[in-house]
Specification:
Helix content: 25-40%
Bound molecules: zinc ion
Distance between the termini: 40 Å
Strand content: 15-25%
Number of helices: 19
Number of strands: 23
Length: 537
């Protein structure tokens, strides 16, 4: 068995593993790479995917970092089945259309700029039509029902308890007469999460290889109950100050968990009766509808509430803002309110408007309740930035910032270990994926020391050979995986620019005083950016 790591290897985005055995070639997940321009170039590298030669794709769950590249792969020649659970199929449809819409808008914006500069036009990564062409390929799979996508490869989906419909996937095959089992954890949920059942366990079963997600491999989360209390504190704080509570939240799962939590707070009498709650995200509104359509995937507690006639996803004060006008109206509305909007990392979407209008207000609360990726505005605020740039404008951070870890849909370190221990662990080799380097290293040490398992941390574009009964053989083409960066050229270039500026100082000084102050301010701005950069090294 050969495995190619096309993403989420020493990183968290672009999950995609291509497997080759017995003349078959197929993928587990096909996520979008997100990050800086260099990382996002990976989305265009279809030579690595060779879509026309993939026989099928197994999808763990509907998050964009696991499905976001499917339309591109389909547009590049993939015509075969995509397997997913029924809720995953439904969520995929709204999320891929949303993603296609974002791609189209971004290309349009870029092209307007390029046109002004006389540059060549760019194509979107994929279009709404490409996303729509993906849907007929999806075939639904139920949990715990093994199937054979091609003869000799047996696949079973199990409930991963991460988001609605999420799965971890078992792949079984025989090579050189040896039966082998590989498990892909997908993104693993946590026990006790609202709405969803706890993740299925290994039940002492054996697996030869376990591909383990490591997002929170270096830390634990607080409990769900703690998080409910923290949210209540944020609400009480801003209610007292007649200000707003702004909650950046992913449209799928996180938003529904927050609604559920607000429902519980309401039951406990901790939600002010005259504090409206706005769900300001058309995508989150549609996702909530999909949740309602699949109550059979809820946990027993939620099912019991529903059969008692209570709906934990609806509240008397809950209002939906569908249109842009409705969303804008929230900016000028006075008084206290709770606003839930996307994106969860504040790097896109309507939430940026709410932050621009509230971040600088003393008495307001900003409640982060999910993973904040490196380089995002969300991460900067959580890390204590005093000022944030939104729509090109510097906005002071005066609101109270709450970071509530207990809503995470990912298992924390202790929960990952607990889950790994539910397998027999005999001769199991663990491959750590879907994590930043710090988390991977921390988890690797613990899995090796506490569970005595062999651990491997693959890198992007690595090809790993799994030989029955033998060790793992990784091969990386460094030149392709991490093209070298010409730092010397860059540094000498900026030194030349600085020398040129010095040379023209006399010209600057000859300008009128007001023009000089402007040049000085722009120079100070450059210096400020340089200081920022230095402090991050
Ligand atoms: Zn996920
Ligand atoms: Zn993920």
């Amino acid at each position: 068995m050969k495995i190619n790591f096309l993403g989420a290897a020493q990183g968290v985005t672009g999950s995609c593993y291509i497997l080759e055995t017995g003349g078959h070639r197929f993928a587990v997940d096909c996520g979008m790479h997100q990050g800086n321009a260099e990382i996002e170039k990976r989305n265009l590298n279809m030579d690595a995917y060779r879509p026309g030669t993939l026989e099928f794709i197994l999808v763990t769950h509907a998050h964009i970092d696991h499905i976001g590249l499917l339309p591109r792969v389909v547009a590049s020649g993939f015509k075969n089945p995509i397997y997913a659970t029924p809720p995953t199929r439904d969520l995929m449809q709204i999320l891929l259309l949303d993603s296609a819409h974002i791609q189209e808008m971004e290309a349009e914006q870029q092209n307007r700029r390029r046109q002004r500069h006389g540059n060549k036009q760019v194509e979107p990564l994929y279009t709404t039509a490409d996303a729509t062409a993906t849907f007929p390929l999806i075939q639904t799979i139920e949990y715990n029902k093994p199937f054979e996508p091609v003869p000799g490869i047996r696949v079973t989906y199990r409930d991963a308890g991460h988001i609605l419909g999420s799965a971890f996937i078992e792949v079984e095959y025989t090579e050189e007469g040896k039966h082998t089992k590989i498990i892909f954890s997908g993104d693993l949920g946590r026990p006790g999460q609202l709405i969803l059942p706890d993740p299925s366990k290994g039940n002492g079963g054996h697996t030869d290889y376990l591909f383990m997600e490591s997002t929170y491999g270096d830390r634990d989360h607080k409990s769900v109950e703690n998080s409910r209390e923290e949210l209540a504190t944020a609400i009480a704080y801003s209610y007292k100050n007649h200000e707003k509570v702004i909650i950046p939240a992913f449209a799928v799962e996180r938003t529904q968990q927050i609604l559920y939590t607000l429902f519980l707070l309401d039951q406990e009498g901790k939600l002010p009766k005259d504090m409206p709650i706005y769900l300001d995200s058309p995508l989150a509104i549609r996702a909530t509808e999909i949740f309602r359509n699949h109550p059979e995937y809820f946990d027993d507690k939620t099912k019991a509430l529903l059969s008692a006639g209570k709906d934990p996803l609806s509240l008397p004060n809950l209002r939906f803002s569908q249109t842009a006008e409705e969303s804008r109206a929230l900016n000028t509305m006075t008084g206290s309110a709770i606003i839930i909007s996307a994106s969860g990392m504040a790097n896109a979407g309507r939430i940026r408007h709410h932050l621009r209008h509230n971040l600088w207000r003393k008495g307001a609360s900003i409640v982060f309740c999910g993973y904040q990726g490196e380089g995002t505005p969300g991460r900067k605020i959580v890390d204590g930035a005093k000022q944030i740039t939104i729509f090109g404008e510097d906005v002071a951070v005066a609101a109270k910032v709450f970071t509530i870890g207990g809503f995470s849909a990912h298992a924390g370190q202790a929960e990952i270990l607990q889950w790994l221990k539910s397998f027999d662990g005999k001769d199991t080799k663990v491959i750590l994926i879907h994590g930043e380097v710090k988390a991977l290293k921390a988890l690797s040490g613990i899995v090796h020391d506490q569970l005595g398992m062999e651990v491997h941390i693959p890198s992007y574009l690595e090809e790993l050979t799994l030989q029955p009964g033998k060790g793992m053989v990784p091969v990386v083409d460094e030149a392709k995986a991490a093209p070298s960066i010409d730092w010397d050229f860059l540094l000498s270039d900026s030194q030349n620019l600085f020398a040129e500026f010095q040379k023209r100082m006399a010209l600057a000084k000859a300008k009128p005083w007001v023009a000089q102050t402007e040049i000085r301010d722009r120079f100070l701005d450059l210096n400020r950016k340089m200081v920022e950069l230095i402090s991050e090294l």
